Known about the structure:
This protein is of the alpha/beta class. It has helices at residues 15-28, 45-48, 57-66, 77-88, 109-123, 140-146, 160-175, 196-202, 214-222, 234-247; strands at 3-9, 34-39, 90-91, 95-99, 129-134, 151-156, 182-188, 206-210. It has an eight-stranded mixed β-sheet, with helices on both faces. 41% of the residues are buried. The site of magnesium ion has 4 residues, from helix 1.
Amino acid sequence: MGHTIAICGKGGTGKxxxxxxxxxxxxxxxxxxxxxxxxxxxxxxxxxxGFKPTANIGEMLDEVSKNPAMIPRGMSKPEYIEYRIQTxxxxxxxxxVLVMGRPEGPGCYCYVNNLLRDxxxxxxxxxxxxxxxxxxxxxxxxRRTMRSADLVLIISDDTSVGLRSAKxxxxxxxxxxxxxxxxxxxxxxxxxxxxxxxxxxLGIEYLDSIPVDKEILELSIKGKPxxxxxxxxxxxxxxxxxxxxxxx
Length: 248
Ligand SMILES: Nc1ncnc2c1ncn2[C@@H]1O[C@H](COP(=O)(O)OP(=O)(O)OP(=O)(O)O)[C@@H](O)[C@H]1O
Ligand SMILES: [Mg+2]
């Protein structure tokens, strides 16, 4: 049975960056079959991993809504979409990418998110690790995908506003009826020494921190994938430490 890791946190804290780097580590260390799930409607996880996503659930849903006759007899709409997603999902040698995307129609997010959750639930047994990059905050959409997580990493900067927001997310996770065995705080763009006291007062389990990395900024400006980070990258070193702590 696969390990499901959900990455969440407030907007712009580094969820997609950290998801990509964790996935990169799992691939490099040959940790089996990996599914990368982009559960943010403004998706960019695939691009960070160096792929141009070909299919996403939102677009497929629009296509099927416009042309319902394409659903084979005896198949329900969700079954058909799930079948299409599984056959058209971006596939690389050691990992697959599943993208939620955004449907055009109003009020479709819940539907597309439910589909995503159901597909992930069914796929769990086919992968060793599933890494879910969530949308910002802990909106009702992310809460649903979060339910199946074994491990939740809450990403924050080290400002007091950021930390309070991380704490709210942690409280929500604990309130939710989720199976999450563990949730941890990861500080990004941070030199953690400055907030040791705040962390103690906050009562949230702190895992590690990742420093500002100029290389990440440069790649981001050029629109290049994080797979091009050099071995010497400061963030990669922290990711290495985090992954070893979690999985070795
Ligand atoms: N450790 C870091 N050092 C330097 N730049 C970083 C670091 N982490 C993230 N960034 C940059 O910060 C920006 C936001 O990061 P990212 O997209 O990963 O955040 P996010 O939480 O996924 O945002 P959103 O809430 O919009 O999905 C990106 O341009 C990224 O390259
Ligand atoms: Mg993101």
